[in-house]
């Protein structure tokens, strides 16, 4: 997972997965995480290596926590 600064007001998420038909699962995860919020200005690149959305969410939250410390 790579989290980088993005364009103001734009959240870009790219997911590379080996799981067929996972697009809807990822869309639901990101909708739950960012619904009702102004999107953060970041670019997120995820290579899931077959990880579940729960594991990816945990890693994202850890990354956001680290960003908050800066």
Automatic annotation (TrEMBL):
GO molecular function: acyl carrier activity
Post-translational modification (record): Covalently binds the prosthetic group of malonate decarboxylase.
Keywords associated with the record: Cytoplasm, Phosphoprotein
A Gene Ontology cellular-component term: cytoplasm
Superkingdom field: Bacteria
InterPro entries given in the database record: Mal_deCO2ase/Cit_lyase_ACP, Malonate_deCO2ase_dsu
Localization of this protein: Cytoplasm
Its biological purpose: Subunit of malonate decarboxylase, it is an acyl carrier protein to which acetyl and malonyl thioester residues are bound via a 2'-(5''-phosphoribosyl)-3'-dephospho-CoA prosthetic group and turn over during the catalytic mechanism.
Family: Belongs to the MdcC family.
Designated name of the protein: Malonate decarboxylase acyl carrier protein
Organism whose genome encodes this protein: Pseudomonas fluorescens
């Amino acid at each position: 997972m790579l989290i980088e600064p993005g364009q103001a007001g734009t959240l870009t998420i790219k997911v590379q997965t080996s799981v067929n038909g996972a697009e809807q699962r990822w869309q639901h995860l990101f909708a739950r995480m960012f619904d009702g919020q102004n999107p953060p200005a970041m670019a997120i690149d995820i290579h899931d290596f077959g990880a579940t959305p729960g594991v990816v969410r945990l890693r994202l939250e850890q990354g956001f926590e680290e960003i908050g410390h800066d």
